[in-house]
Amino acid sequence: MTLRVAILISGGGSNMVRLVDSMTGDHPARPVLVLSNRPDAGGLAKAAERGVPTAVVDHRAFTSRETFEAALSRALDGARPDILCLAGFMRILTPGFTRAWDGRMLNIHPSLLPKYKGLDTHRRAIDAGDRCAGCSVHLVTADLDGGPVLGQAEVPINPGDTAETLAARVLVEEHALYPSVLRRFAETRARPSAG
């Protein structure tokens, strides 16, 4: 059984590229759609170059989160994904949307959750005097960056680090962590249940 994966992006899609490129050979999942809320997202062209169908649902065309998410759901329905991966998707999703994808939606976050939910994670870790930062892949729930953590990678904070230098090193770990967690998650879901 091969699972179908849709990936939501808002920008350049570097994590999306790593996910798509990892889903080859004996991988239990395949990418079926890359969808962006921004028509100018650079990741759309990168997905198309890899032969993955793309779509845009521009959030600015909608008057509420609910109407935007209804259009998002219609676009996703056409691709029939089993798993939804957020990869730099910069929209907060409503509880109604997250409930519909309960247990099937993953996100990568640039901190060692539960520390530093939300934005500006690298600056916050440096300002707090932390010795290490990192990234987490978690299940998405209605609680922002609060779902169960499925995997983490640590990065030391060096003397003189800025938010930018730390972010660059964390991104390298994100590119390794997210594909490995997705593979493990998909293998578990694709396995026939006993009995």
In short:
This protein has 6 helices and 7 strands, in the order E-H-E-H-E-H-E-H-E-H-E-E-H.
Jot down its keywords:
Rossmann fold; 6 helices; single chain; alpha/beta; 195 residues; 7 strands; 7-stranded mixed sheet
Report on the structure:
By secondary structure, the protein is an alpha/beta fold. The chain has one domain (3-190): Formyl transferase, N-terminal domain (Rossmann fold, 3-Layer(aba) Sandwich). Helix content is 37%, strand content 22%. A 7-stranded mixed sheet has the order 3-2-1-4-5-6-7, sandwiched between helices. Strand 1 (3-9), helix 1 (14-22) and strand 2 form a beta-alpha-beta unit. It is globular and about 50 Å long.
Topology:
Layout: E1 3-9, H1 14-22, E2 29-36, H2 43-49, E3 54-56, H3 65-79, E4 83-86, H4 95-100, E5 105-109, H5 121-127, E6 132-139, E7 149-156, H6 163-190
CATH fold name: Rossmann fold
Any guess at the CATH architecture?
3-Layer(aba) Sandwich
Structural class: alpha/beta
Give the fraction of residues assigned to helices. 25-40%
What is the tally of helical segments? 6
pLDDT < 50 stretches = none
